[in-house]
Write a structure and sequence with these properties.
Blueprint lengths: L3 E4 L9 H14 L8 H5 L4 H11 L6 H18 L7 H10 L3 E6 L3 H10 L8 E4 H4 L7 H10 L6 E5 L2 H10 L2 E5 L8 H7 L2 E3 L6
Parallel strand pairs: 1-2, 1-4, 2-3, 4-5, 5-6
Helix pairs in contact: 1-4, 3-4, 4-6, 9-10
Length: 210
């Protein structure tokens, strides 16, 4: 039985996507930028650096990507370090999996200054064997190479890894790479629920269903 788990963070472990999405849209609105209707779906797999670069292409032209990244960091850091909580049943299920000998790992677009303090404040930091940000690989989760790299670091074949994500682009990429994929419900991705259900191996609404 596979017992190597790789979890997305935002929208899967943490109930952070409403805050994350609000901040991203806020930045675009404050700069009078037009953006696609599915902007959150587009930027979720990118990581903050690539998101800042993408925002620059949308029309925040008076600011360099580095400046945009600084704006994003400033708004998000406080929320992750002080406000955002984990989803229901997450801690209990992770503790159960750990007790049964599972390897628990995170692969997220969120950077470590936001990820690590949030996990510590919510009392689950020590449960994970590896905490990976897209920044560590310089790769997005919407493309397959990052999953091969993560599996390699775990000493596993991708087929031995179980992956959890709430974003359709990530689910499709992970499935294409060969992982066993759980789609996870989140309010911010509910419009893509049926698409995610069709693309993944299993679909859950919360961690009590694992």
């Amino acid at each position: 039985m596979n017992n190597t788990y790789i979890f997305d963070f935002d929208g899967v472990i943490a109930d952070s996507m409403p805050t994350w999405a609000r901040i991203m849209v806020e930045i675009l609105d404050e700069n009078n930028v037009s953006y696609p209707e599915n902007i959150i779906e587009i930027i979720t797999p990118l990581g903050l650096k690539r998101t800042a670069e993408y925002f620059a292409t949308l029309g925040i032209k008076e600011k360099a990507p580095e400046e945009i990244l600084g704006m994003i960091y400033e708004k998000m850091l406080y929320a992750y370090q002080n406000v955002i909580v984990i989803k229901p049943y997450v801690k209990e299920k992770l503790e159960q999996l750990k007790m049964n000998g599972a390897s628990l790992n995170i692969l997220t677009a969120s950077p470590h200054p936001m990820l690590d303090p949030c996990l510590k404040r919510n009392g689950i930091f020590e449960l994970f064997d590896n905490l990976w940000s897209c920044d560590d690989f310089n790769l997005p989760k919407s493309e397959t190479p990052i999953y091969f790299e993560a599996a390699k670091l775990l000493g596993k074949d991708v087929s031995e890894c179980i992956f959890f994500d709430d974003n359709i682009n990530n689910v499709v990429a992970a499935k294409k790479a060969g992982l066993f994929v759980y789609g996870v419900y989140d309010e911010t991705s509910k419009d893509a629920q049926h698409e995610i259900e069709n693309a993944c191996d299993k679909y859950i609404f919360d961690f009590s269903q694992i």
